[in-house]
Each structure stands twice: as C-alpha cells, then as structure tokens.
Amino acid sequence: MLVNITLSSFAKDHLPHYETDEAALTDQDIHAIKQAAKPKLPKGKLLRKTSLLET
Predict the structure, then answer these.
(1) Of 19, 25, 38, 39, which residue is 20 to 30 A from 32 by alpha carbon distance?
(2) Rounded distance, CA 4 to CA 15, Å?
(3) What are phi and psi of 21, to 5 degrees?
(4) pLDDT in tens, 3-40
C-alpha cells in the first residue's frame, strides 16, 4: 500500500498533466485519421499473422 501511495504522489508531482478531451471523436474525425494514416500503412501480401493471445 505504501508503494501505491508513493507512486501516486510521484505521478501527481512529476508527470505532465493533460487537458481533458472535449468529446469523443466524430465519424468525420475518424475518417480523416484513417485517410492520413493510409499512405503510411504497409502494402503488399500478408506473409504470416501471429497473435500473442493464441497458443
């Protein structure tokens, strides 16, 4: 419990505080993000797909 309190206090004092989001993303926002990301995504055939959750 002491570690939890210490870490919480450290985070409040030293980590940056970000402003609260105004609202959820709109469909238009999501579309704009996808369009901006599209040229940066890999292209070509998928060679192998793996998952950390499947065994």
Answers:
(1) 19
(2) 15
(3) -60, 150
(4) 899 999 999 889 888 888 888 999 999 999 999 999 99
Q: Which helix (H) or strand (E) segment is 27 a member of?
A: helix 27-37
CA-based Rg of the chain, rounded to a whole angstrom? 20
Q: Tokens 């238009």: give the residue.
A: 28
pLDDT of 50 strictly over 70: yes
Phi, psi of 35 (to 5 degrees): -65, -40
pTM (2 d.p.): 0.46
Pair of tokens at residue 48: 């192998």
Q: Which amino acid makes up residue 51? A: S
